[in-house]
Structure formats: C-alpha cells, structure tokens
Write a structure and sequence with these properties.
By secondary structure, this protein is an all-alpha fold. It has five helices and no strands.
C-alpha cells in the first residue's frame, strides 16, 4: 500500500529480479531466523516458535523439518 503498487506487481517484480517468489524469500528468512535463535539463544523451541508467530510448536517443527531436513530439537542439540 505504501509503495502504491499491487501485491501481484510486487511479487512479479521480485520474481524477475531475484528468481525467487516472495513466499520463498520469506520462508528462507524465517528459517534463517529460526536457525540463528536455535544456535545462539537459550530460548526453548516453544519460545522460538512463538517469536516467529507460528500457530503452535508442532507446526513450527514440521515447517522447520520440511525446509531443513532435521527437527528443531536436533538442530539445537548439534549447536
């Protein structure tokens, strides 16, 4: 709205420039943030899930595993 362009135009432009969709970029950023918090904080997985606005810890775990191939708890343990 502030850019005075439609969502479709923005997403089309982002895809042309980066080669990735808006959803892919957002997913990448969420996973990077999750990984950073899992490695560098003493927050619980539930607290990290909440900080990233996931509906619940279970969904966060499935989302994380889908994108990384490992569970958040395993990733945190490997630290």
């Amino acid at each position: 709205e502030k850019l005075k362009i439609s969502n479709i135009h923005l997403c089309t432009t982002v895809k042309k420039v980066t080669g990735n969709t808006c959803a892919e970029i957002i997913s990448h950023m969420v996973i990077m943030d999750a990984k950073s918090q899992l490695k560098s904080t003493h927050l619980s997985i539930q607290e990290i899930s909440n900080s990233l606005n996931f509906a619940n810890t279970s969904f966060f775990g499935k989302y994380f595993k889908q994108h990384t191939g490992t569970s958040p708890s395993r990733y945190k343990r490997k630290g």
